[in-house]
Amino acid sequence: MATTDKASPRDRLLDAAAQLFYRDGVSIGVEALCRTAGVSKRSMYQLFDSKDEMLAASLERRLPWYEAQLKPADPAAGTPRERILHVFERVEKASTDPEYRGCPYLAVLVELKNPDHPASEVARRVKERLQDTFRTQAERGGARDPELLARQLMLVFDGASARAGARVERLDDGLATATVTALLDAAGVR
User: Fold this and answer.
1) Which of 101, 182, 184, 187 has the most crowded CB, counting CB atoms within 10 A?
2) CB-based burial of residue 31 (10 Å sphere; 0-12 exposed, 13-18 middle, 19+ buried)?
């Protein structure tokens, strides 16, 4: 996400935060954020009470884009099974990008380790929404235990994104979708 001169200082800060936090982690300094955004520290602190607040705001702002990456073009199309598999196909595709670092929301939860941090609260809500989506699709698909399946799918999602983001595992061979297919079969999802 490149910053533009026409964007407001707030937008430039949020763009820089999203880019740097994803690439370098949440420990990136205020100096680097402001330099990348082309905004003074004074301006930053007029817009945000803290770097923590800016991180949370950048995660909130990125959410529509993130969720759109995981949804099919037509959310009503396909079976519940196909909708679940689509999410994992998208992760597999995203993981081939050299800039891929895994799920940004999982990364924040892992890095911060503080459940009360404003960014952790945003990230946790995002992960809960994804799990709710999995549970809803599992129910619609006739899963024997939709709650358990949703939790299992989250383990695969987070594990696949973390391992691919760390360049420990390649997902371009369909490993995630094969794993999810086995879970869906075992749960009886149509």
Assistant:
1) 184
2) exposed
CATH number of the domain at 31, please: 1.10.10.60
pTM of the model: 0.92
Residues 34 and 111 in one domain: no
Domain count, the chain: 2
Residues composing the chain: 190
Q: What are the tokens at 185?
A: 């079969």
